[in-house]
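fyi for ur records
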Amino acid sequence: MFTRVVTIGIMFALLSVGARAETELRVGWCARTISAAAAPYAIAQKMGWFAERGLKVIVTPLPGSTDCVKEVATGNLLFSIPSIEPLAIIHPQGVKAKIFYTAYQSFGYGIAVPDASPIKNFADLKGKIIGVTSMDSAGVVVARAQLAVAGLNPATDARIVAAGEGAATASLLRSNQIDALSQFDTQYAMVENAGQKLRMLPLGTMARFPGNGFLALETTLRTRRADAVALARGFAMGEIFTMANPEAAIRILYEVYPQTKPIGKDEATAVADDTKVLRARMAHWDLASGGVTSWGESNVANFDSYIDFLVQWKIVPQKVPASELVTNELIGEINASFDRKKIEAQAKAWKQ
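which gave:
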């Protein structure tokens, strides 16, 4: 009996040590609502991939990429996952931060209109109202850039307004309160799930530009390198699992983040709708779409081209070399610490 009590005591002591060793890490999510695109976080938490590296990751919603960059720049958050535009804008002010893991290899933003809209190209946006998820979203930057490319004045030839997300956005389109959207892949899938069919205007040269990635101050990458690697590693493993079994990923998402499960839908419909949202994002996880071979690798040439584009159309005030905004320093370490085939097998074998 004494031996058993001692053994149980030791077990509780070890569990207590493990609990103390787990570090809470708040990571900026650059939208007000956690959506199906957060599946990699949920999977990494469910499978224990964050915990085995001593992390408890807390996804923290923010209005958009601008806030995601600001929160990291001011030290309120160590990590977030914004697009590059706000970083390029704020960098000349002395903000030393870098994207160390490109999560979305191709461009997820773009301009969409209702399927029956007479708008056929960007020039047709003159005098129109364009809805973004929030005024802090990178959709504002994208809209202004596309208006400039079409020869319009972004400040006067169209109006950009906050239109919210998902069903709220769909309602504004149906009631003709807005004419077009400058949002992103998963939001467009959510709008269509809400019953509003959309048509994308052709992106042109923007299609090859990179999307969002994990951002941290350079000092954080030096002092919290292990946490940066663990965060990106877990996310990469979650991406791999999701791509191998999207439906399982959605069911795990509902378990880890119950607030993401739609209300008023039966289980099958909810899973089908959110799998559609997830597939919209998965297309941008594909490594080939960014011309890279490792998870999280940044194609510096693609980033340079995008920054040149933003400078050309006066969205970013001055040229900033991509090498000052992104780094591949951690990519080898991140990719060396998991087995892709093993994760894919786990995903395919997963049962509710």
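The chain has a mean pLDDT of 91. thats all i got for now
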